Amino acid sequence: MSNINVSNCSLLQVLECYIISVDSIIIPLLLAVLSAMWIMLPAYLPNPVAALMGGGTPIDFGKKLSDGKRILGEGKTYRGLLCGVLAGIAIGLIQIWLEDSYSWDFLPHHTLASIVLLSLGALLGDMGKSFLKRRLGKDRGTKWPVADQYDLVVGALVLLLLFDPSWLVANFTLPIIIIIIILTPILHRAVNIIGYISGIKEVPW
């Protein structure tokens, strides 16, 4: 009988430890991942939409700088910029509606300013990277590790820092930043592979 009691106690201790670990580790981690995705969605969406809907007049009008290289290149167009920003704002407005309609207080709360800055900042970051690539003599579509993955994050954070620093500080906590750093290259790679397979992108990176 004593052996049975010991076994029961051990089993209960294991279950208790498991429940505690779920409550204290797994659930907060999942919530942090969801929060990071929720925050960055208006910044993640514009780039693939711009690639899909781009074309037409280049932002640099085909002009070159004194170094003889294009300012940005053919890949950055007004139509792509406009469609990308509007897509980011649209998904952000849906997020705000969901937050208000269903009282999703467990998620970061977006504002009109935050979704505009995230959407526009993501594409400005991408344009800034293209400008630097041209200066370094890198052709369009050439791999540039790290910069290719994090340009949208840097652009979005810079605009938030300049125009809405209080929202930035309140929502971009250290755990959220770490998760964004981990998630961004994974999502970037996945979206680019899908774009390449579907014929939207010329290269899978």
Describe this structure in words.
With 205 residues, the protein is mainly alpha-helical. The protein has one domain (28-197). The chain is built from seven helices and no strands. The chain has helices at 2-44, 46-53, 78-102, 112-135, 147-163, 165-171, 174-197. Helix 4 (112-135) crosses helix 5 (147-163).
What features would you highlight for this structure?
single chain; 205 residues; mainly alpha; disordered N terminus
Class by SSE composition: mainly alpha
Task: Profile the largest sheet.
Answer: none
Q: What would the principal axes of the Cα set say about the shape?
A: globular
Q: Please indicate the count of domains.
A: 1
Q: What is the C-alpha radius of gyration, as a whole number of Å?
A: 22 Å
The termini sit apart by 64 Å
What is the count of β-strands? 0
Q: Tell me the β content.
A: under 5%
Mean pLDDT across all residues, rounded?
Answer: 86
| Low-confidence runs of at least 5 consecutive residues | 1-8
Helix amount: over 70%
The number of helical runs is 7
Order of helices and strands: HHHHHHH
